[in-house]
Design brief:
The structure holds 2 protein chains of 2 kinds. Chain A is 22% helix and 30% strand. Chain A is α/β, with parallel strands linked by helices. Chain A has a 6-stranded antiparallel barrel. A 5-stranded parallel beta sheet of chain A has the order 3-2-1-4-7, with helices on both faces. Chain A has a 4-stranded mixed beta sheet with strand order 9-8-11-10, with no helix packed on it. In chain A, α2 (68-81) links the parallel β2 (46-53) and β3. Chain B is built from 13 helices and 14 strands. In chain B, the strands form 4 sheets. A 7-stranded mixed beta sheet of chain B has the order 2-8-7-6-5-3-4, with helices on both faces. In chain B, strands 9-10-14 form a 3-stranded antiparallel beta sheet. In chain B, strands 1-11 form a two-stranded parallel sheet. In chain B, β12 (314-315) and β13 form a beta hairpin. In chain B, α2 (39-59) runs parallel beside α7 (235-247). The chains are: A alpha/beta, B alpha/beta. The A-B interface holds A 12-13, 48, 53, 56, 68, 71-72, 75, 84, 86-89, 125, 128-130, 132-135, 174, 176-177 and B 294, 297-298, 301-302, 304-305, 316-322, 367-368, 370-375.
Amino acid sequence: MSEPLQTGGTPSAPAPASNDGRVVVAMSGGVDSSVVAAMMHAEGWDVVGVSMRLYGDAARAGKSCCSPDDLHDARSVATDAGFPFYVANYQEEFQRTVIDYFVDEYRRGRTPSPCILCNDHLKFDTLLDRMLALDGRFLVTGHYARIEKVGDRHALLRGVDRNKDQSYFLFGLPRPMLGRIRFPLGEMTKTEVRELGRELGVPTADKPESQDICFVAGREYASFVEERLGPEDRRPGRIVDVTTGAVLGEHSGIHRFTVGQRRGLGVSHPEPLYVRRIDAQTGDVFVGTRDAVRQREFTIERCNWLRWESAPSEFAAQVQVRYRQTAVACDVSHRDVDAERAWVVRLVEPMAGISPGQAAVFYDGDEVLGGGWIEEVA
Amino acid sequence: MTGRINADHNASTPALPSVVAAMVQLLRGQLANPSSVHRAGQAARATVETARRRIAARLGVDSGFVVLTSGATEANNLALIEPPRGAILASPMEHPSVTRVLDALARGGRDIEALPNDSLGRVDLEWLGARLRSGGVGMVCLGAANGELGVINPVEQAGDLCAKHGASFHVDAAQAFGRIPWSVPVGASSVTLSGHKFGGPQGVGALWLREPAGHGPLLAGGGQERGLRAGTENVVAIHGLGEAAHTAEPDAWASTAVLRDRFEAGVLSALDASVNGDPACRLPNTSNISFLGARAEEIVVALDLDGVACSAGAACSAGSVDVSPVIRALGIGAEREHSAVRFSLGPDADPETVDELVTRVVHVVRRCRRNSVRG
């Protein structure tokens, strides 16, 4: 937070006329966002804390993120520090853009990434609008990532705590608004954040991390998805060896599988088997040994670029196809595939576990160039 | 002018100065249990009974019994504890302390039917008459005035219809008592009122019962309130309620109509917006406006940051705002539902404040109407 204040005017988001240093801090009730809010308040910013109410299932007891208990925790941080706090009711948007999407992807034999959708449609869309409506200068969150001014543009970078880096989930940020978003924790380690929380007297400084997908807390996702699938979607199918074509077994629904999965296949085999591909039409789940499931090329869609306004038709980068993965070298090209323009990613070394539905995020060292959604894997 | 503006009187009113003085004086004195035999207890008893008389006087009744409760919610619950046999008719625009109780009764097998309304929030008296004539109706519930829209309901006529057909009639008068000239309709069997809606304290209210005998209690225990409501009386709050009933001036509220109209004219001349609820028959202080293209919750928050108190929808326990069932019952469409904000002035309002309120509302709505960052 040592860089000078940026007013960051852009054509679609002119700099605010007011000079009162108001920031809207997205508060989940967890340690990170609580510390960010308390920290900015202590630094003299006019903090407005906002928690998003995303789902209202009272049966979902306990803390998972944004549950009623968490909202209460967020509110208590605001009350203690003395800044205003509001709850934004985004249940309808969340149902539509995250939960429905989540179920639908499994129905299609894909692996969803709901946290990215929540970022794209809730935090850095609806909530960003809210920040502007409330005359804020910046929307601030507790993400472990960095936004830095580079010349006349802004760059999204990995957080310095490599273990906690969340830049992967942020590739969808709207480029014109990068100058109005702040991630103060990007320069800190988790340990430092907790320490700061204790120093500031934040009530939630020692709160444990939420590990599950926020809206399926305490339940495994398969039963969550099953409850929401129609009977026609819960079809049994075959487990097929991708190399030989032999049928190795049966399953009770493709939504129970994800590309790269090793456990729970229900098939005995001398070597470990991994899911390589799921065919939603036939219900076939293709599995193979580790070598047999390595792939090299895949297409991506609905790309969002941060490094450039529009990406060059060919470039080299490092890519992550999931969170928690070391980025690997690749070439990206925008070319015709089967008479259509497509973004094609070709890895230098083949790799297992490239799942349709996941995000491919491109890096140049620490900087996020942008990313897209994995569509087809060759 | 940079002060805070309270445009949320329908949620809670500030306590009248005489009410504050009366309650403080009692708190400083010796608080005693009205059921105690000794002198202090008798004094407490007298305080409670004086309040009861004052409420009855304001209601315009000289029979029946005023049961003192913890508020309108308890009073409505008590009114519906054992409804007479037959169908129960109620408007979906009633307060949740009526509608949720009826939902529970429906789950228990009772026949609950909705009293229809038009898009201006006016209940259909013809439908009511016809339904009563067709028989089998045990009870009708209709509020005297709707707190969200301000619409004043025809409870006199509804009461006459009920009396004619032998149906009980419960009137939730929380938003009318002490605010508009009002007395108990001839056909009413029970009336609810609420302390904090007309200058009294929160946490106290009353249920007037025309026929208290045989009515079951909600809270059982000691035999207070003629066995209708157990528990040591909240003497201080009851004293405040009685004082408010005694000194409230509906005329002071009546004079807000001009200011409310000034507010609406100011807003509507600057913005594209629409008023919800029948403008011809409303509480004088209430204005419910839909601002298409903006989200009600956002407007309320932005106004709060700009020093204006108002409200939208129904607050939930987590503190967020859901669409109000009252607005939903108008059938005006999702966009108008999600952009409906309620402004409710108080007797303290003046033209200067109202003009400032208009300025802030216009400024905020314009900001909230800007295009999405994603285009």
